[in-house]
C-alpha cells in the first residue's frame, strides 16, 4: 500500500472511494458486523481522504453514503442488502482492511483490488463445517443431560438440517419461511426417530436442535443498535427477530399437532448435566466447534473456546449467589462482552468476532422449548413460568451486552474524535506556543 503521502481527492477518485466504502460496508454487514462498527470505519476512511460534507446512513438492509471532494464535486452511493449471515474470518479481514486504508491511504484507484483480495477467504470444506456442527450438537445434547441414545438421534437430524437449510436458501426464501419449514421438518424427523424406539427423550433432542435456530446473536445486535444510537435499525431488527422466533414455534406446534403428541408438564422435564468440570469442557468444545461453523480459523479458535468457557464459569459461579435470572444473565453477558471487547481492542478485530462464540452458553434454547410446549399443551402455568424466564434471560443477556457495548461505544467515539482532530493541520503559531 501507499505511504502516508498527501493525496488530493479529485472527482474521479471520489467515485472510487465511495464505491469502496459502500461495498465494504455491505460486505461487512453481510458477514455479521454490527452497524456501529461499519459507521465508524466509513467515517475514518472519509476523514483519512479529507472528504467534506459527508453523509453516512447505515441500516442492516440499506446503505447510503455521500461526500464532497477538494474541488467541490459531490457524489453519493446507495446499496441494498438482501440477506446477512455469519462469516467471521471474512469480517476480520475486511475490518483489518479498513484499518490499513485509514493508516496508509492508498491510491483510490487501487481500493477495488484491495477489497477483492480481502474478500478472498479460503472457506472450510463443507464436510468440515458439517462435522463441526454435529460435534457442537453432540456437546449440547450432553450438556442437557442426554445419553448416547439422544446423541444417535441428534446426529442424523443435524446433518439433515445442515443441507436442508442450504437448499431452502437457494431460492432466496425469507428467513421466516425457512425457520418455519426447517423447524417443522426437524421436529417431524425427531418424532419419527422417537417412534423407532431409539430414544424416548424427545425434549432433550428438540432443545438441542433448536439451539442452532433460536436467534440469540441477532437479538444481541438488535439491542446494541437500539441503545447505542441506531434506534431505527434496532427496532426493525427486533421486529424481525420476534417474527422469526414465532416461525420456529409454528414449526414445532404444527409437527406436534400432526403427530398428536401428548405434552404436559412431565414431558418437558429435562435434567441438565450438573457436574461443573464436564460442563466447562463441553462448553469450551461447543464454542470451538461453532467457531469453525462461523468461519473462525487457526489459533483464534482457542479464543473462541475460551470465551464460551469463561461465560460458563461465570454462570456456574454466580448461580448460587444470584437468584434473579435477569441479573445472572446480565452479569454473565457483561463478562463475555468485556472479554470480547478487550480482545478486539488488542488485536484490532471486530468485537463480534469474539462475542458470537462467547454467548452460546446464554442462548435460552431450553426455555424456548418449554414455552412452546406450554402453548401446545394449553398449560397456562407452564407457558407463563417458562415464558417469563425465557424473556428475562433474553433481556438480561441484552442488558449485559449493552452495558459493555455502551462503554466500548463511547471509547470508540472518543478515539474517533481524537483521530479526526489529529487530521486538522496545526498552525505554526500554535506549535510555538506548545513548545513554550
Task: Describe this entry's structure for a reader.
The protein is 69% helix and 5% strand. The protein folds into two domains: 11-122, no CATH class; 126-414, no CATH class. The two termini are 38 Å apart. The protein is elongated and about 75 Å long. The chain has 436 residues and is mainly alpha-helical. Strands 1-2-3 form a three-stranded antiparallel beta sheet, covered by helices on one side.
Mean pLDDT across the residues is 83
Number of strands: 3
The 3D shape can be described as elongated
Largest sheet: 3 strands, antiparallel
Give the N-terminus to C-terminus distance in angstroms.
38 Å
- Sketch the topology as an H/E string, one letter per element: HHEEEHHHHHHHHHHHHHHH
Q: Give the helix tally.
A: 17
Q: Helix coverage percent of residues?
A: 55-70%
Radius of gyration: 24 Å
Secondary-structure class: mainly alpha
Query: Order of strands across the biggest sheet?
Result: 1-2-3
Residues in β-strands, percent? under 5%
List the helices and strands and how they pair.
Elements lengths: L10 H21 L3 H14 L3 E7 L3 E7 L5 E7 L7 H17 L6 H8 L7 H18 L4 H22 L5 H21 L6 H9 L5 H12 L3 H28 L17 H18 L6 H19 L6 H23 L4 H7 L6 H12 L3 H43 L5 H8 L1
Antiparallel strand pairs: 1-2, 2-3
Helix pairs in contact: 1-2, 1-3, 2-3, 2-16, 3-4, 5-6, 5-8, 5-11, 6-7, 6-8, 7-8, 7-10, 8-15, 9-10, 9-16, 10-15, 11-12, 12-13, 12-14, 13-14, 13-16, 15-16
In short:
The chain has helices at residues 11-31, 35-48, 88-104, 111-118, 126-143, 148-169, 175-195, 202-210, 216-227, 231-258, 276-293, 300-318, 325-347, 352-358, 365-376, 380-422, 428-435, and strands spanning 52-58, 62-68, 74-80.
Amino acid at each position: 500500500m501507499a505511504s502516508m503521502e498527501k493525496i488530493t481527492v479529485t472527482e474521479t477518485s471520489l467515485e472510487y472511494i465511495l464505491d469502496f466504502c459502500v461495498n465494504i460496508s455491505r460486505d461487512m454487514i453481510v458477514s455479521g458486523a454490527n452497524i456501529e462498527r461499519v459507521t465508524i470505519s466509513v467515517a475514518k476512511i472519509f476523514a483519512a481522504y479529507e472528504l467534506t460534507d459527508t453523509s453516512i446512513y447505515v441500516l442492516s438492509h440499506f446503505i447510503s453514503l455521500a461526500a464532497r471532494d477538494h474541488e467541490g464535486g459531490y457524489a453519493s452511493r446507495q446499496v441494498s442488502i438482501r440477506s446477512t449471515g455469519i462469516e467471521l474470518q471474512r469480517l476480520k479481514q475486511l475490518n483489518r482492511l479498513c484499518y490499513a486504508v485509514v493508516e496508509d491511504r492508498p491510491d483510490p484507484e487501487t481500493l477495488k483490488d484491495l477489497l477483492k483480495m480481502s474478500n478472498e477467504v479460503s472457506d472450510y470444506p463443507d464436510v468440515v463445517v458439517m462435522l463441526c456442527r454435529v460435534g457442537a450438537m453432540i456437546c449440547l445434547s450432553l450438556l442437557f443431560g442426554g445419553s448416547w441414545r439422544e446423541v444417535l438421534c441428534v446426529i442424523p437430524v443435524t446433518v439433515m438440517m445442515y443441507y436442508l437449510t442450504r437448499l431452502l436458501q437457494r431460492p432466496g426464501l425469507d428467513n421466516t419461511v425457512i425457520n418455519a419449514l426447517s423447524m417443522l421438518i426437524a421436529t417431524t424427523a425427531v418424532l419419527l426417530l422417537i417412534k423407532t424406539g431409539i430414544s424416548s427423550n424427545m425434549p432433550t433432542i428438540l432443545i438441542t436442535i433448536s439451539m442452532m435456530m433460536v436467534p440469540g446473536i441477532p437479538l444481541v445486535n438488535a439491542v446494541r443498535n437500539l441503545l447505542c444510537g441506531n434506534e431505527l435499525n434496532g427496532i426493525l431488527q427486533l421486529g424481525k427477530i420476534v417474527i422469526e422466533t414465532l416461525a420456529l414455534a409454528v414449526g414445532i406446534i404444527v409437527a406436534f399437532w400432526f403427530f398428536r403428541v401428548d405434552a404436559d408438564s412431565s414431558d418437558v422435564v429435562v435434567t441438565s448435566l450438573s457436574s461443573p468440570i464436564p460442563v466447562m469442557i463441553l462448553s469450551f468444545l461447543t464454542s470451538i466447534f461453532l467457531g469453525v461453523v462461523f468461519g473462525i480459523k487457526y489459533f483464534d479458535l482457542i479464543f473462541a473456546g475460551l470465551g464460551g468457557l469463561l461465560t460458563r464459569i461465570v454462570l456456574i459461579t454466580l448461580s448460587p449467589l444470584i437468584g434473579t435470572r435477569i441479573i445472572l444473565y446480565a452479569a454473565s453477558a457483561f463478562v463475555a462482552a468485556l472479554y470480547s471487547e478487550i480482545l478486539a481492542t488488542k488485536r484490532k478485530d471486530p468485537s463480534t468476532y469474539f462475542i458470537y462464540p462467547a454467548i452460546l452458553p446464554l442462548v435460552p434454547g431450553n426455555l424456548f422449548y418449554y414455552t412452546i410446549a406450554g402453548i401446545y399443551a394449553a398449560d397456562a402455568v407452564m407457558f407463563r413460568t417458562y415464558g417469563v424466564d425465557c424473556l428475562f434471560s433474553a433481556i438480561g443477556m441484552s442488558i449485559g451486552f449493552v452495558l459493555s457495548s455502551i462503554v466500548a461505544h463511547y471509547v470508540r467515539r472518543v478515539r474517533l474524535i481524537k483521530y479526526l482532530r489529529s487530521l486538522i493541520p496545526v498552525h505554526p503559531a500554535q506549535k510555538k506556543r506548545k513548545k513554550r
